[in-house]
Amino acid sequence: MHNGGVSFWWQQVGLPSPADPLTGDDVCDVAIVGGGLTGLWTAHYLREADPSLDVRVVEARFAGFGASGRNGGWLSSELAGSVRTYERAAGPEGVERLRAALRATVDEVIGVADREGIDADVVRSGVLMVARSEAQRQRLDGELSAEQVAARIRVAGAVSGHFDADCARVHPAKLVSGVARVVRERGVRVHEGTRAVRLEPGAVHTDRGTLRAPVVLRCLEGFTAGLAGHRRDWLPMNSAIVVTEPLSDAQWAEVGWEGQELLGDEAHAYCYAQRTADGRIALGGRGVPYRFGSRTDVDGRTQEWTVESLRATLTSLFPSLAGIGLDHTWCGVLGVPRDWSASVAYDPATGLGHAGGYVGSGLTATNLAGRTLRDLVLGASTDLTALPWTGHRVRRWEPEPLRWAGVHALYRLYRAADRREDAGLGRTSRVARLANRVAGR
After folding, report:
1. I want to staple 285 with a disulfide (CB 3.0 to 4.6 A). Which of 4, 271, 417, 419 is the partner?
2. What is the 3-state secondary structure (H, E, C) of the chain?
């Protein structure tokens, strides 16, 4: 089994070599820090709106090195954050506007991929969420019976389900590399191999020189903590994925899954999965949730006990796959604000802006955030700039060691709640409710 190497997705398409690093001090109109999908989409839409702008992207490794090239491939309309948080900002109507914008964004991303010739194994297959206990059934409140779930995917122990058509399967590395190609073709320079160390109004200070610009946008998601002064802004939460060997026709006949839906569950320590284009199952979930001091992984390497935990989840869902080989495992970080809700912001007075904190639901949200940043930078008042995540502020995370102790205690509580519910508790565990209060969710 291959461990790390950034991700299985990048191993399939080939790891790129960093190109066009910054060579000393330079100037531009817009400097975007972070070469993931948030930064790339922002660059794409800014250049599309105003081709005269000199837009640059600064990236420490290569475009798509982070979560954009490691995620589970869910192009989903799932809300990136807490309903209650957004309701406090804009009421239920504001939440519905954000949900509608995310649903439309699924089609926007697919449309860009079609127009620009980005072959990212896209299948608009929807997502099937399943409940495997009475407590999960109550939380999910799904419209599908156990029999209807089994007609789609034969998940062991499923008692109900919910199907959402507004979701597509994608190959993450193919998508982000395609967007990076399009951005470069539009004249945006992506300075790879260039690590930003400090931001200030009008300047990005890197290990290869200073890039000065009247507009500086931070789009680093889980790697935000690596910037000077930002260690406690967003917590880099860890998630891990395993990919099986290709399943045989007989194994697929046992599992079902002919519709290629995305698959998730309603557990507190949830899992997420896809049937890949080449006939494997990619399944992810929490490993070590957080590393002390907001440290991030080394090229996606993950721990053996995490692999075994994910293997156990896989065979719990599909007992007929017990003993199946795992070909690859990797991990990565996602950005988690203290209130678990994403934000997009820009201050015209300083020229500083940011987007992110998607709490694991960012593949679609990156595109919406990029278009919103475009409007904010260009000074346009639009439906996007009126969404409830625009200008959202949140307090910082606690200092260490409270941060480390709190996050690890939190996930111990969630796992304990899952064990109680799996043992037959007929409602959501009070342990999980306590964890949600501690988390600020």
Report:
1. 271
2. CEECCCCHHHHHHCCCCCCCCCCCCEECCEEEECCCHHHHHHHHHHHHHCCCCCEEEECCCCCCCCHHHCCCCEEECCCCCCHHHHHHHHHHHHHHHHHHHHHHHHHHHHHHHHHHCCCCCCECCCEEEEECCHHHHHHHCCCEEHHHHHHHECCCCCCEEEEECCEEECCHHHHHHHHHHHHHHCCCEEECCCCEEEEECCEEEEECEEEECCEEEECCHHHHHHCCCCCCCCEEEEEEEEEECCCCHHHHHHHECCCCCEEEECCCCCEEEEECCCCCEEEEECCCCCEHHHECCCCCCCCHHHHHHHHHHHHHHCHHHCCCCEEEEEEEEEEECCCCCCEEEEECCCCEEEEECCCCCCCCHHHHHHHHHHHHHCCCCCCCCCCCCECCCCCCCCCCCHHHHHHHHHHHHHHHHHHHHHCCCCCCCHHHHHHHHHHCC
Q: Could you report the per-residue pLDDT of 72-98, keeping only the tens digit for each?
A: 999 999 999 989 999 999 999 999 999
Could you report the per-residue pLDDT of 250-294, keeping only the tens digit for each?
Answer: 999 999 999 999 999 999 988 999 999 999 999 999 777 888 888
Question: What's the mean pLDDT when you consider all of the chain?
Answer: 96
State the CATH class of domain 2-377.
alpha beta
Q: Is the pTM of this model over 0.85?
A: yes
pLDDT digits (tens, 9 = 90+) for 406-427: 999 988 999 999 999 999 999 9
